[in-house]
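Look over this record before class:
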Amino acid sequence: MTLSIVIPTLNEAEELPATLRHVAAVPEVTEVLVCDGGSRDATRERARSAGVRVLEGPPGRGTQLRRGACLAVGDVVVLLHADTWLPPDAGTAIGAVLARPEVVGGAFEMEFRDPPLFVRGTRFRCRLRMRWFQFAYGDQALFVRRDELARAGGVPEVPLMEEFLLCAALRRLGRLALAPATVSTSSRRFRQHGTLRTYLRMGMVTLAWWFGASPAFLQRRYAQGPDPSSRS
């Protein structure tokens, strides 16, 4: 089994190098595609210096992920945030889950690095979401067999909420499951914007989504402030 890693970036020069070092420690990874949305810092240069492929185009995380996933050649496509670190046994963990024929994809349990007090307990919430709703957030490193991703229509080309749409599409094809391993992601947005403010904004975005707001509207409405996609 081979893995293609697709990473959307926008001004991630500080976080990306460490993420790429963790990716390089996973033996099953055969290609890395960094899909940049117009960074004004050294993101692209640092990606190229790490020897990975850089794709440039319009911003929008779903759009960027779709751009890379369409060109991926690995057996499994892993959609990885630029500040999320894979464990060295990520390939083995993915293989164990996808060995079950009814499983088309999944995600990892997730924990924050150096989290504020009220951001703890994320691994437990990951398990509940997968068990009850067959759903995972993007910072859990979603993965899917490349052929099943094609059957699902690819990564939705939306500015955010792409994981909601993608998980819904994949559930129509089979089951999703948590890999027996944990990724770690940055808690920077909670520290920059405050835990309460960040959680409130996430809740408003999710509630608006369930009441029918479009991803484009949510992107315009919540363009300022902490990234609504960095959830727990």
